[in-house]
Design a protein that fits this description.
Radius of gyration: 18 Å
Helix content: under 10%
Number of strands: 21
Bound molecules: beta-D-mannopyranose
Largest sheet: 5 strands, antiparallel
Length: 334
């Protein structure tokens, strides 16, 4: 039994591989990565930065695919094991809260999916005079009811908590610019109704550590544990050849998740495998979802690789929390 309690339903069919012998990394890769190839959807050239959840004994996902007009859109996929995916060839078409079809979205990317109370919610980066956080709810992954955009432009990486905190729906996001954003901190906002968002609080500022000193963005849905909310995020640095996206983690206070208990000074995973260092955008590992099994403490992290494919990595909750605590971020000395 894990020492850390993960709050949630057991997931005995979580995808899993033991850490390879000789590897001492806290997060290790699936040896058959990528799990979703770049040509998984006809008419799209890359499928990446996508979100999966358990569904009816198997798994369902909302996938980002970049089409030949250059715009990304959102597609539903299904899988018996979260390794072999059958992804729709047509993008999600939303209906409004009145049930009537809406105009297709201009673009949608970097989705996250979470069950909150009776509905599954999708948040994504949605066009509204530039990028902001789009929202929709579904009960069957067939009909998606688009809600109001959560924030003003420009914003990215909207990530809902799986339950209300202090009686309010709670979301992380990262205010940005309309381009490749050379800055970015994680903020928290709350809402009584999933429409009106306020009570904005700063959570994490991009710190001095060189691998994440340009910007940070929330990744998968925060994982509720006995030790706090486990937040897996992307941390970005600027190099002479462009931005590099690594995967980091922090623990947030359970009752007030704008409070950071400890942020890890070290990354858990950084682009190293060929499918992460080569692709449409080299050197990107961009986590958008995790699956976890409270019974075993296993965590499977879904991440986009080089803005081209979807990949999978594994970790154990006790080891991740031990690692975060063993390598706490500290203010710059001197
Ligand atoms: C961000 C987003 C992500 C992408 C990343 C790296 O701004 O557009 O979708 O993975 O850049 O290119």
């Amino acid at each position: 039994m894990p020492r850390t309690t993960i709050v949630g339903e057991p997931l005995p069919n979580i995808p899993w591989q033991d850490r390879p012998s000789g590897c001492s990394d806290v997060v290790w890769r699936y040896d058959r990565n990528p799990v979703v190839p770049r040509d998984a959807i006809p008419g799209a050239d890359r499928v990446f930065n996508s979100a999966v959840v358990p569904w009816e004994g198997g798994f369902v996902g909302v996938f980002r695919a970049d089409r030949r007009n250059g715009y990304p859109d959102l597609y539903v996929g299904r899988s018996p094991d979260s390794l072999r995916w059958d992804i729709d060839e047509t993008a999600i078409r939303f209906v409004g809260e009145d049930g009537k079809p809406r105009e297709p979205i201009v673009y949608g990317y970097d989705p996250r999916v979470v069950k909150v109370e009776d509905d599954h919610y999708v948040t994504w980066c949605n066009y509204f005079h530039g990028p902001t956080i789009g929202m929709a709810r579904t009960r069957d992954f067939a009909t998606f009811v688009q809600l109001e955009n959560a924030f003003l432009p420009f914003n990215r990486n909207g990530v809902l908590f799986p339950r209300r905190v202090g009686g309010l729906y709670t979301m992380l996001s990262r205010p940005s610019d309309n381009g490749h954003t050379p800055f970015g901190d994680i903020y928290l906002s709350q809402s009584p109704d999933m429409t009106f968002w306020g009570k904005h609080r700063l959570v994490l500022k991009a710190p001095h550590y060189w691998w994440k000193n340009t910007k940070l963005g929330a990744g998968p849905i925060p994982i509720e544990t006995s030790e706090g909310w486990l937040l897996i995020y992307h941390g970005v640095c600027q190099t002479c050849s462009g931005l590099v996206y690594s995967i980091g983690a922090a623990l947030l206070d359970l009752e007030d998740p704008s409070g950071v208990l400890v942020d890890c000074a070290e990354y858990l995973l950084t682009p190293q495998a060929p499918y992460e260092t080569q692709g449409f955008v080299a050197n990107v590992t961009f986590p958008c979802a995790s699956l976890q099994d409270p019974a075993t403490g296993r965590i499977a992290i879904f991440y986009g690789a080089a803005d081209t494919t979807c990949a999978l990595a594994f970790a154990h909750v006790d080891e991740v929390i031990e690692y975060i605590r063993a390598h706490p971020s500290k203010p710059l000395a001197g």
